[in-house]
Every structure is written in structure tokens, then in C-alpha cells.
Amino acid sequence: MIDLGYSLSPRFPDPPQTDYRSADVRALRHDLFCGDVYLADTEKDRELSTAWGWVPVLDFAWAVCDIVERLDRDPRGSRSHTSQYAELDFTESADRMVFERRFGWVDITADWQPADEPPLVFNHAALRREARDFLQDLVADLTDMHDALAHNPVIWDLQARFPRV
After folding, report:
1. Distance in angstroms (rounded) separating the CA atoms of residues 68 and 80
2. What is the pLDDT of residues 71-130, one digit of tens each?
3. What CA–CA distances, in Å, run from 143 to 8, 18, 59, 109, 124?
4. pTM of the predicted model, to two decimals?
5. Dmax (CA) of the chain
6. Chain-centre distance of CA 23, in angstroms?
7. Which of 85, 101, 103, 120 could hold 71 in an S-S bridge, CB 3.0 to 4.6 Å?
8. Taking CA 7 as the corner, what is the angle to CA 27 and CA 97, rounded to the nearest 5 degrees?
9. 30-76 pLDDT, tens per residue?
10. How far apart are CA 54 and CA 12, in angstroms?
11. Taking the domains of the chain in order of start, what are their residue ranges?
12. C-alpha span between 64 and 87 (Å, rounded)
């Protein structure tokens, strides 16, 4: 089973003058809601997580949803033997997560994990469902904390682009 999660950092709070109703894509993806994220395989008790405190969690959720869709561009879908790759770069460091899909499975590795550690492996359809659920739940949490965010057109577009499956 897949578990995606986050925690917001008290060390990097959003600026108090932030107007969440009109925050643009750049602010939402790179400047606000910093903390840490994790992606876990609960059955094997393994996870990839950050412990930096500055990862923009909304950007992470958004990027994972984008990546899962990019990995599904082969018209043969889960029957495709051709590997498809995507990377998630962490903008404030050289670290990245690498996603590789072959057939219906996605291998996920991170630059910071030991080289001899095997990748996390998830079913693509399950990863899509969990990524979208994580994004929708995160947006709900953030709008509970910042009411004006619920009126931001960028958030409306994001929720419409990646609805729950």
C-alpha cells in the first residue's frame, strides 16, 4: 500500500502578508507551504522522505501528479515493455527522485538513498490514485488553514486537472 504524506515546517513559515486568494503559480509551487514529504510502501515498511524542512509540499504533490500522467503516455499502457522515465528535481538542491515505469509498475529511487537499496515499486494505477488523493487532501488541509486559498483560480484549475480517481 502506498502512503504519501507531508509536514509543514515551523522554520519556514509563509510570509504573514501573503494574499492566498491571488497567489500566482510560482508562489504556490515554490515559495509557500514549505516542509517535508514522504512516499512510503507500508507493506514493506520502506519510505523515501526528506528531512530538509524547505520542500514546497504543494509543488511536490503537483509534480507527482504530473509525473504519473507523463509515465502513462505510451498508448499500450500497462502492456508496454518500453521504460518511461521522469524526474522530480528539488529546486534548492541537486537531489532528485527518479520514476521509471515498465509494464504496469513504477520504480521510484532517490539520489539520497543508499546505492544498494532497492527502489520502491508501485502499481501505476494505484500510484495515480494515491497521488491524486494526496493532492486533493493537501489542498483541503491548506484551505482549512488559509480560507482565501479556496478562492484562488490556480487552485481551482489544479483540482480540476487532477480529480480523485
Report:
1. 15
2. 998 777 777 778 899 999 987 788 999 999 998 999 999 999 999 999 999 999 999 999
3. 14, 14, 15, 31, 28
4. 0.94
5. 51
6. 20
7. 101
8. 75
9. 999 999 999 999 999 999 999 999 999 999 999 999 999 999 987 77
10. 7
11. 2-161
12. 9
Give the tens place of pLDDT for each residue, 4-37: 999 999 998 888 899 999 999 999 999 999 999 9
Residues 6 or more apart from 95 whose CB is under 8 A from it? 89, 110, 111, 112
- Are 127 and 2 spatial neighbours (Cβ–Cβ below 8 Å)? yes
Rounded CA separation 150/165 (Å): 21
List the beta strands (DSSP E) in the chain: 2-8, 34-41, 46-49, 55-56, 84-89, 96-102, 105-110, 120-123
* Rounded Cα gap, residues 117 and 18, in angstroms: 41
Count CB-CB contacts under 10 A for residue 138: 20
Question: How far out from the chain centre does Cα 31 lie?
Answer: 16
Tracing cell 494505484 back to the chain, one arrives at 126
Q: What is the torsional sign of CA 152, 154, 160, 162? A: negative
Do 152 and 23 touch, CB atoms closer than 8 A?
yes
